[in-house]
Amino acid sequence: MKLLQFILSLTITVSLIIVLNTKISVVPPVGKFLDPFHGFWQNAEAEDFIPETALNVKGLKKGAKVIFNKQWIPHIFAENEEDLYFLQGYVTANFRLWQMDFQTMAAAGRISELVGPAAISLDRENRRKGMKMAAENSEKEMMADPELSKVVTAYSEGINSYINSLKYEDLPIEYKLLDYEPELWSPVKCGLLLKYMANNLSFRNSDLEYTNGIQMFDKNTFDLLFPDVQPEQDPIVNGTTEWTFDKVAIDTPSTPFTIANELIDRPLLDKQPADIGSNNWAVAGAKTQSGNPILCGDPHLGLNLPSIWYVVQLTAPGINVYGASLPGSPNVIIGFNDKVAWSVTNALRDVVDWYKIEFKDDTKSEYKLDGEWVKSKMVIEEIKQRGTISYFDTIFHTKWGPVMYDDTFRPGSGKSHCALRWVAHDKSKEAKAFYLLNKAENYKDYREALKHYHCPAQNFVFASTEGDIAMVIQGKFPVKFPNQGKYLIDGTNSENEWQNFIPAEHNVFALNPERNFVSSANQHPVDQSYPYYVFADGYEYYRNRRINTLLDSMNQINANDMMIMQNDNFNLRAKEALPYMLQQIDESILKPNELGIYKELSEWNYINDPFVKGPTFYEIWQDILYVTIWDEFKNAKVDLEWPDPFTTVKLLKEEPDFKLFDIENTDKKEIASDLIKIAFSKMVKRVEKIKTEEGDEKMVWANFKNTTAQHLARLEPFSVPNIPNGGNHNIINATSERHGPSWRIIVELDKNGVHGWGVYPGGQSGNPGSYHYSDLIYKWSKGEYYPLKLLKPEDDKDAGIAFVQEFKPE
Q1: Dihedral of CA 572/575/576/581: which sign?
Q2: Max alpha carbon distance in the chain (Å)?
Q3: Burial of 713 (0-12, 13-18, 19+ CB in 10 A)
Q4: Does residue 32 surpass a pLDDT of 90?
Q5: How far apart are CA 383 and CA 105, in angstroms?
Q6: Rounded CA gap, 404 and 131, in Å?
Q7: Share above pLDDT 90 across residues of the chain, in percent, rounded to a whole number
Q8: How many whole angstroms separate alpha carbon 525 and alpha carbon 665?
Q9: 83 within a domain of the structure (yes/no)
């Protein structure tokens, strides 16, 4: 059935491309593509398909074995590390080549080479961010490390060995559809992949939105809307660590912070979705049934196909690790070995600052710095475009970094040329951190490994068979004076530069706290006792408090308890907001259709289970209410940061007559209750419209939410829509329409043998014509898991094994 569905959907897709696409240059040569012996037919695989099992591969030093279990997870056994990473590259490319290639081309600003001018804006964005420059800086650092250079070189050679073995009929279907061929791999592409993740998780331009905001509102109002931290926050480390170090001192400029005296009216880059985040926690043996620590993690990222992750076991002398890898980068990123386990969540810290550049004239060859004119560096980027001539983009580099916004890129009426200083541009070797983590045996090894990790900052949770649990907020963080980098900075004054970085040993951490657990969920990292200034936009306020409430109340915990908790659908935001919202509605005057919705919401238990309607009514109501409240932001002629949901609910309940609650375009002075009533009425009308157009079943939460695992190239037949799943953003099971737990892992650290469980919304194969392209999705959606067993070479006859590949040097 999978084979038939693939062929039918692809045939329809290709037919539509041929019929509807007038730019014949981006359509595959039809005869070649439809050739039954070489074209897309060769990408269809039956459910019982088994790849070739005996391979002679050029580049291997010795023989090796790869055992594939029934989920097609490879367990790679090699006699030395170079062969191990060579085979990791080879096997990953075998199943994920197009994904690896496409993501690194996107990071490098090269998608226009594939699809033409339609992608020029995206490519210019990534060139101007300095993504390629950042990857090249990382490559230099990786290759200067004798140990790491062997790893990334072997990994790259393994990928290239696979690429060189391919004929046209072997190419992934996306190459045939887009009519191009893969390039050979190199270590700089490993760097690009890591910068691709750094961009997704750490890039911000909220400084510019805050700059607009503080000029539109008085400072008291602005600080009320955008506090550095709310007193109700439950930080990652809260009074559990004594800071015994001497803080690194920096000079505070004579003017504490300076901002441009103009509104930045240019259209800014789109913000990263609020759904990107993660949960992780570890509980000590004192709280578990077995007496062993248990570690849990679930990073919340885009629900993509092929999946973001490729699960693998890597075994050679000195290493035996299992977990999720990033296709295109060696090592395991989240996983465990026979001594330790670790997982990560995004650590929200401000590691991007924006500087206003004053150029001498329109040539931009000189800019002002400390009263003098300093030469800028001009870089001309050639962006090749399929089907037409190249686009040449001129980018000017300053002391601070590349000028991203100028009069040629997203221009406004002003002259606010903005350069960015981003930690991701600096030399780094994050791959070394994961290489050492994969081999770590204890807490000391874990801390030593993390010293090499810079960006994107992550909350690394840890547990070991020795009984330790820990959390470290790890990254390369500039030492900042209060409010530094919160707004657009005066780039003419070098006093505003980053003077130093927080030493790794000063980073926020917790080791074996008295409460017997550690956790993080993208909230504020630390309480006010921490001596360094900490700031970021977008802190989470709900998942973290729910996690801590549950863990604090639990004892005799086992792995099954943790599975249930990772799939928890309790909506704390609704519990704190909905009763107040309902109190503002006069039930006695409601019409029958309004009363039905009111009662449904009144009886709802705040649990976003997939097959109920309460979450749908609440979601529509809160979304309309949010936009109704902040009409000043919606109607603004410049880009603004909007107040977060927690602040919004807090103001509704505590300051119902807050001045911004008054709707701008009405004569009446509205207060909180008026807005809630207006939003309720609009919600009912929207519900009725949806029911009329799509039927009553659309009100069921899973149907309304329409969780979709989307193909990277947005090819609909290669996507999986309507995944029946509960949860939502701000919920532990943070599954929204396009984002969610991209990998769930649970590990029990038993000295007699570590036990693991995991699942993710995808499949091991990147081939849409394979049964294993999406076979894990529905187990994931039901909250079920597969065991993650560290195999030995002699386990190749076990019942859970699908096939074995034997590799020999050519």
Answers
A1: positive
A2: 82
A3: middle
A4: no
A5: 12
A6: 12
A7: 85
A8: 40
A9: no
Q: Using CA atoms, how far apart are residues 144 and 315, in angstroms rounded to an integer?
A: 25
Give residue-wise pLDDT tens across range 64-121. Answer: 999 999 999 999 999 999 999 999 999 999 999 999 999 999 999 999 999 999 999 9
Q: Assign 3-class secondary structure to 649-690.
A: HHHHHHCCCCHHHCCCCCCCCCCHHHHHHHHHHHHHHHHHHH
Distance, CA of 102 to chain centre: 17
Digit-coded pLDDT (tens) for 97-112:
999 999 999 999 999 9
Tokens of residue 128, six digits: 């101007």
What is the average per-residue pLDDT within 306-316? 98
Residue 649 lies in a domain: yes
Q: How far is CA 714 from CA 119, 320, 738, in A?
A: 13, 37, 12
In three-state form (DSSP H/G/I as H, E/B as E, the rest C), the secondary structure along 497-508 is CCCCECCHHHCC
Total domains in the chain come to 1
pLDDT at 43 (0 to 100): 54
Query: In Å, how far are 171, 269, 387, 802 from 116, measured between CA atoms?
Result: 21, 21, 6, 42
Give the span between the Cα atoms of 700 and 579, in whole angstroms. 21
What is the rounded distance in angstroms from the CA atom of residue 263 to the CA atom of residue 257?
17
Give the β-pairing of 707-711 and 720-723: antiparallel
In a domain, 72, yes or no: no
Domain housing 618: 572-606+613-699
pLDDT of residue 260: 54
CA distance 696 to 703: 10
Would you say residue 259 has pLDDT above 60? yes
pLDDT at 271: 78
CA distance 81 to 70: 26
Contacting residues for 128 by C-beta, under 8 A, at least 6 apart: 393, 395, 402, 403, 404, 409
Model confidence pLDDT, tens digit, residues 478-519: 999 988 999 999 999 999 999 999 999 999 999 999 999 999
CA dihedral 773, 776, 780, 785 (to 10 degrees): -150
**The pLDDT of residue 65:** 97
Q: Is residue 226 one of the residues assigned to a domain?
A: no
Q: Please list, residue by residue across 82-99, b when 16 or more beta carbons sit within 10 angstroms of its beta carbon and e when fewer do.
A: bbbbbbbbbbbbbbbbbb
Q: ∠ CA(697), CA(703), CA(709), 5° rounding? A: 160
